[in-house]
Design a protein that fits this description.
By secondary structure, the chain is of the alpha+beta class. It contains five helices and eight strands. It has a four-stranded antiparallel beta sheet, with no helix packed on it. Strands 5-4-7-8 form a four-stranded antiparallel beta sheet, with helices on one face.
Length: 191
């Protein structure tokens, strides 16, 4: 049972600090790989599970610490998390518990665009990702915000997909084919 809070992930073992807000991490295996559906869609009924993969973790977070600029106390302290292939990982908690900060650290938004002090390691597929830019990380990680209006740039699906490809600096002649393939993949070609 891992917990993340203002003082970091708290496990069942004794902790030096007691967080004022806690964040919980739950694991659920998926059927059919990364595009499968959750084993039991009734979230209130899902049981916590141990990692189900015999493969190495796809994402490892080791002793991650983050302090916002001007803040005396760290938002994240000593965060350890491993995500295995075929898992759906839910990060839940109260406002201010560090969920968004953790995701922004993984995506590279924090501290490169927010400032602050980051410590620890984030490893994706066995590779340290600290030197990767937000643009490079966006090919592996994405964040879906709670308020859709804060992340949509246009009211047309085609333009939204093209915008993402342009930001990845995909050569312009390749963009229409890639956008069409992405929309077809998700059944959005009529959009």
């Amino acid at each position: 049972d891992d917990r993340v809070g203002n003082a970091g992930i708290q496990s069942d073992r004794a902790s030096k600090q007691q967080p004022s807000a806690q964040m919980e991490i739950r694991r659920y295996p998926l059927y059919g790989g990364s595009r499968g559906t959750a084993r039991d869609s009734r979230i209130h009924r899902m049981d916590r599970l141990s990692p189900t993969s015999t493969q190495p973790p796809i994402l490892e977070i080791i002793d991650l610490t983050f302090r916002h600029p001007g803040s005396v106390q760290s938002t994240l302290t000593g965060v350890d998390l491993s995500v295995y292939p075929g898992e759906l990982v839910l990060i839940a908690g109260a406002t201010g518990s560090g969920k968004s900060t953790l995701l922004n650290c993984i995506a590279g938004i924090t501290p490169s665009h927010t400032g602050g002090t980051l410590g620890g390691n984030i490893i994706y597929q066995g590779r340290e990702i600290d030197p990767l830019s937000v643009c490079q990380r966006s090919q592996f990680f994405g964040i879906l915000l709670q308020n859709v209006e804060l992340q949509i740039f246009t009211n047309r699906v085609w333009e939204e997909v093209v915008f993402g490809l342009e930001n990845w600096q995909v050569p312009p002649p390749q963009i229409p084919g890639l956008a069409k393939a992405a929309l077809n993949e998700f059944g959005l070609s009529a959009q």
